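User: Predict Alcohol dehydrogenase, iron-dependent domain protein's structure from this.
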Amino acid sequence: MRDQILSSIGEPCAIIGLGGGCTLDVAKAVSNLIPNGGRSEDYQGWDLLKKPGIFKVGIPTLSGTGAEASRTCVLMNLKKNLKLGMNSEFTIYDQLILDPELTATVPRDQYFYTGMDTYIHCIESLNGSYRHPVGDAFSREALELCREVFLSDDMMSGENRKNLWWLLI
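Assistant:
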């Protein structure tokens, strides 16, 4: 993919990731591979990238995946038949555009399952090995907000979509 991009348009000045978690992760990987070369498998692990990626903008259209906030992009490693992370400070988005209206047309089931990802992350962080009082406080607040959204009469109301969306930041 890298060679196709470079041969057809030259080096881009920015990469834009628009969509859910997988799309955002692929955009982060493309951003990293353009200046570093090689294949994604070469960088699956911790801090293996040597150069910063191309400037990247993330525009999530689902709330709950966490891809917009993570230093990891998860990709399939075909040699190992596993999903593995490219983990680096260079993987973090340079800029985000966060708009809860982008979830307005998400199918109800998809909205629920990605939102539950947030809920599960809260539970994980409250039961993890490397806890911190500040992190615990954020997790408890986020857990309560998730419960309010998912137990309400209309979890997809404009107000609930905004509440779930702001858990992204």
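The longest helix spans residues 108-126.
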